[in-house]
């Protein structure tokens, strides 16, 4: 990755607090970069007025000797499925055009309480359904490494924005790989926490049993600094868990003595030779640094994609039922009856991928098919969780590729949903098991970024961030 115009987040905020940098100048820098690089289509909307007002308030507080937060003056970008004041929240779908948030996401509130400033909303696959941002109802984001290629998805806009230096960090969501896969495709760090570590309150829901907040940053240290602010319980989200008492910063970055399993099922058929070479080189570097790296097999892992595309559409079908043309801004105005309003609003508001997932989900939950599909999928999900637990009795971490290929060309998989779904084949397993996982830049194949996938046991987020930092240092 090229050198950034932004300092590390901890250093940037320290300089703002010390009066060496002005929050107002950082906001202008972010907005100027967003405008200068708008041809990449990473951003749906900017939030200039609110960002400038908040920056001025922070600068005034510092001038008056008042205490400000750990992220004072640091600009950031939120995926457009986070409720944020100052701009519409559309989830990149026509169904939510015109919707303005009545309250903010818990994680946005936590970041703002520490002085961070949201400057823009990033593009995504509509309702976070996709692996390329081509399912956005507005436009496709371009990969900074090659504008003819996708940046991944669904948090493609957030990942591209970080690599394009639009802000020091961005927020995404990861349901089955939507932070890790775009991070791999564009060459940044994408972090998926243990399920429940960060509140999902105020985020447009996709699949409630795997949805998590994720971060897109340039380094593992930056990820840790942001995670330390937003992790922890929230009374507005009953699935949240306690944060690590030790926090997530100042993590040890030792590689020596670590037991690491290279997942056999992620290195076989379907993995591009260039991607496999990068991952094997990373494993060799870990061995040379004193880690014990051995192959490990999780026999049920090849079934994880099939399980995911039964369980997740079922939850999508349920969560999207609230979008009926009655409760949000988008509605079919000429309907003569309520049924027609439902039909026309959903028919015109939802895109093809949302409709596909609604139909799959409704089908697998329907009478006569629930036992044949949904119940079996949940049984295999439990088996997969047990296999991960057994693997972690032998290993501290598991590794492999994030995706079987590098970024594909725009339009290459657009007419083949199955091929598009295969882009998530390595990321859905940890999501189904609720495990923390991270994508760390590991090298390139044909000049395109390749991410190393590192997975840890549940609630081992602090250890995983340390491992990511150690990997980063070895693979730089």
What does this structure look like?
- There is one protein chain.
- The model has no long low-confidence stretch (mean pLDDT 96).
- The longest helix is centred in the last third of the chain and has 25 residues, at 370-394.
- Helix 7 (220-230) runs antiparallel to helix 15.
- This protein has 476 residues and is an alpha/beta fold.
- The chain is built from 15 helices and 11 strands.
- The protein has an 11-stranded mixed beta sheet with strand order 1-3-2-4-6-5-10-11-9-7-8, with helices on both faces.
- It is globular and about 65 Å long.
Helix share bin: 25-40%
Record the strand order, biggest sheet: 1-3-2-4-6-5-10-11-9-7-8
The structure class reads alpha/beta
> What portion of the residues fall into strands of 2 or more residues?
5-15%
Using the alpha-carbon principal axes, give the shape: globular
What composes the largest sheet? 11 strands, mixed
Order of helices and strands: HHEHEHEHEHEEHEHEHHHHEHHEEH
User: How many helix segments?
Assistant: 15
Task: Write a brief structural summary.
By secondary structure, this protein is α/β, with parallel strands linked by helices. The chain is 38% helix and 13% strand.
Any key phrases for this structure?
globular; 15 helices; eleven-stranded mixed sheet; 476 residues; 38% helix
């Amino acid at each position: 990755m090229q050198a950034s115009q932004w300092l590390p987040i901890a250093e940037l905020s320290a300089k703002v607090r010390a009066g060496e940098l002005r929050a107002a100048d950082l906001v202008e820098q972010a907005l100027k970069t967003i405008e200068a690089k708008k041809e990449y289509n990473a951003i749906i909307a900017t939030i200039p007025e609110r960002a400038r007002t908040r920056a001025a308030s922070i600068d005034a507080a510092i001038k008056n000797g008042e205490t400000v937060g750990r992220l004072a003056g640091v600009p950031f970008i939120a995926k457009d499925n986070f409720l944020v004041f100052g701009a519409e929240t559309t989830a990149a779908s026509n169904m939510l055009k015109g919707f303005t948030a009545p309250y903010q996401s818990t994680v946005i509130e936590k970041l703002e309480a520490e002085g961070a400033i949201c400057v823009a909303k990033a593009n995504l696959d509509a309702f976070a359904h996709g692996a390329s941002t081509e399912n956005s109802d507005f436009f496709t984001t371009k990969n900074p490494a090659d504008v003819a290629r996708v940046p991944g998805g669904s948090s493609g806009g957030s990942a591209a924005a970080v690599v394009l230096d639009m802000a020091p960090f961005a927020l995404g969501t990861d349901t089955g790989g939507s932070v890790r896969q775009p991070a791999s495709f564009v060459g940044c760090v994408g972090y998926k926490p243990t399920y429940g570590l960060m509140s999902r309150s105020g985020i447009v829901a996709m699949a409630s049993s795997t949805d998590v907040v994720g971060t897109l940053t340039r380094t593992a240290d930056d990820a840790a600094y942001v995670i330390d602010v937003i992790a922890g319980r929230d009374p507005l989200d009953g699935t949240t868990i306690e944060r690590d008492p030790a926090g997530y910063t100042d993590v040890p970055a030792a590689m020596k003595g670590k037991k690491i399993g290279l997942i056999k099922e992620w290195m076989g058929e379907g993995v591009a030779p260039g991607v496999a070479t990068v991952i094997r080189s990373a494993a060799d570097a870990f061995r040379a640094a004193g880690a014990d790296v051995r192959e490990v097999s999780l026999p049920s892992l090849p079934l994880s994609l099939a399980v995911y595309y039964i369980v997740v559409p079922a939850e999508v079908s349920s969560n999207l039922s609230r979008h009926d043309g009655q409760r949000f801004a988008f509605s079919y105005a000429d309907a003569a009856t309520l049924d027609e309003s439902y039909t026309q609003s959903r028919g015109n508001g939802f895109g093809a991928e949302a409709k596909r997932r609604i139909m799959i989900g409704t089908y697998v939950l329907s009478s006569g098919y629930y036992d044949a599909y949904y119940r079996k999928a949940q049984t295999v999900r439990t088996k997969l969780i047990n296999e991960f637990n057994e693997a972690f009795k032998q290993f501290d971490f598991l590794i492999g590729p994030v995706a079987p290929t590098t970024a594909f060309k725009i339009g290459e998989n657009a007419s083949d949903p199955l091929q598009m779904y295969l882009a998530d084949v390595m990321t859905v397993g940890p999501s189904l098991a609720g495990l923390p996982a991270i994508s760390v830049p590991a090298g390139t194949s044909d000049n395109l970024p390749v991410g190393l996938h590192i997975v840890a046991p549940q609630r081992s987020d602090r250890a995983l961030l340390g491992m990511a930092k150690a990997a980063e240092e070895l693979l730089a």
